[in-house]
Model the fold of this input.
Amino acid sequence: MFEFDQYFGFLVFLGILGIGFWLMIFLTAFAIPYWITGAALEKRKMKKEAKLKEKEALNA
Done:
């Protein structure tokens, strides 16, 4: 049968494995889409500002 050290080590391993699994699920479900959406909105904002500055330069 297992001694306490082996049993405790196995539980620690399962805990670390579980934390890693849920972190991977969180990153793929929330953090990555959040980052992609933010980058797309920022790019759209920069294009809009550049177009506005170009229009102002032509009018001036």
